[in-house]
Design goal:
By secondary structure, the chain is of the alpha+beta class. The protein has 2 domains: 157 residues, ATPase, nucleotide binding domain (Nucleotidyltransferase, domain 5), CATH 3.30.420; 204 residues, Nucleotidyltransferase, domain 5 (2-Layer Sandwich), CATH 3.30.420.40. It has 15 helices and 15 strands. Strands 1-6-5-4-3-2-7-9-8 form a 9-stranded mixed β-sheet, with helices on both faces. A hairpin with a 7-residue loop joins strand 4 and strand 5. The longest helix is centred in the C-terminal third of the chain and has 24 residues.
Length: 418
């Protein structure tokens, strides 16, 4: 039974508006359903919200329409089907939806913007072992939408899309060549929608896309990307989302023979090692705390917790390592961008990442850095040779744009962006 979840319509919608010009961007996790509703092609956000802890006795929800304050409460939501039905009811129906947009992570031999049909879903399922936290719930969510609303297109932009044209030397592992050609063992890139958005937004703010950008997406999962003139040229990710920087509770880069040693020689077994590396490692594992949330680690470190302090230092050092690598690869940088939850809201971490980079002309404005919240800001001094910016990410907008472009390309034969 629903408690306190008010029915709504977008403020400017006529009561019986049925024109299919809206994109519902859906983010479905194992026990959550988050959404953002866009009017297209104006890109106006009409509503956003989410339901957490689906299947529990009480599922917290949040809802925001237009510029109204966010409303919260609880509801009884037994499964994802009930969550979708609840959102449909409160949106006044799905009649005005042109499509549902998704942000799938990876699939075998599939990338770009795609209609999420069974061919694509089966290709995603082939990567379930590589992306265990991401692919299964996304596949299940898309199939549920396809089942409940077969007339409604489900369109996804893969996280790998922004990195589809990485130079061969940036995607190849030093392994037998047939592993790449036959099995697809190579480096990919993820967080593509986020890195693409901040790249495009930075170009708008600077008035040119002829920029060398180092984009730092730091959140529940984190990555660094190198972008030259609007195109990704390198990424901190490896083949999977269990690579690169230390993640909230996932390992990041790790010696493959150490895994074999743990699993085989020490007798832990492959399943136990996999579970530890994908759920009990990263910042959570290093700190010894029950959480990998950077806010909790900062508080613990300030209270004298040495393991929390070291975990944050490992995280910061890893980010700086990739920044240094990308500075060499691109012969410098014009802009370093901080985006996503950790980077947007944490001036202490930003300052630590930017420390002692005066050799390349970077000069952080400490007052500007300390004063910004999760909003766009320049946090370097006017003298700095490398501009440092905070740009809040907007991944859902990229998903909505690409879904709309896919729909219009079918009717108007215009090129499809990725």
């Amino acid at each position: 039974m629903l408690r306190g979840f008010p029915r709504f319509r977008a403020a400017d919608d006529p009561p019986d508006a049925m024109t299919p010009n809206k994109i519902l961007v859906a983010n479905i996790g194992s026990t959550s359903f988050k959404f953002r509703l866009f009017e297209m092609p104006s890109e106006r956000v009409l509503a956003s919200g989410g339901i957490e802890r689906i299947g529990s006795a009480e599922s917290p929800y949040r809802l925001q329409t237009g510029g109204a304050p966010e409303r919260t409460g609880t509801a009884v939501v037994p499964d994802h089907g009930a969550a979708i039905a609840l959102v449909e009811k409160e949106l006044g129906g799905f009649g005005s939806l042109a499509a549902v947009g998704f942000k799938p992570v990876g699939a075998r031999n599939v990338s770009g913007t795609q209609r999420m049909d069974e061919r694509v879903l089966e290709a995603m399922a082939e990567f379930n072992t590589l992306l265990p936290a991401h692919n299964p719930p996304c596949i299940a969510g898309v199939r549920l939408f396809n089942q409940l609303y077969p007339q409604l297109p489900c369109i996804g932009t893969f996280e790998t899309a922004f990195f589809a044209d990485l130079p061969p030397a940036k995607r190849r592992y030093p392994v037998p060549l047939e592993w790449e050609t036959q099995y697809g063992i190579r480096r990919y890139g993820y967080h593509g929608a986020s890195h693409r958005y901040v790249t495009q937004r930075c170009a708008e703010l600077r008035g040119t896309d002829q920029l060398r950008i180092i984009s730092c997406h730091l959140g529940g999962s984190s990555s660094v990307a190198a972008v030259r003139n609007g195109r990704a040229v390198d990424s901190s990710w490896g083949m999977t989302a269990q690579s690169g920087l230390p993640q909230n509770n996932r390992v990041g880069d790790f010696d493959c023979l150490a895994l074999i040693y743990l699993a085989r020689d020490l007798g832990l077994g492959m399943d136990a090692v996999e579970q530890a590396l994908t759920t009990r490692s990263g910042l959570l594992g290093m700190s010894g705390l029950p959480t990998g949330d950077v806010r909790d680690l900062l508080a613990a470190a300030a209270s004298g917790n040495e393991n929390a302090r070291i975990a944050l230092e490992v995280f910061t050092s890893s980010i700086r390592k990739f920044i240094g690598q990308f500075l060499v690869e691109m012969n410098g940088a014009d802009v370093i961008v901080f985006t996503a939850g950790i980077a947007e809201n944490n001036p202490v971490l930003r300052e630590a990442i930017c420390a002692d980079l005066d050799f390349c002309g970077l000069e952080l404005d400490r007052e500007a850095n300390a004063g910004t919240g999760a909003q766009e800001a320049v946090i370097s001094t006017p003298r700095s040779k490398i501009e440092v910016r905070v740009i809040p990410t907007h991944e859902e907008l990229i998903i909505a744009r690409n879904a709309w472009a896919e729909l219009t390309s079918v009717n108007q034969h215009i090129p499809q962006p990725q």
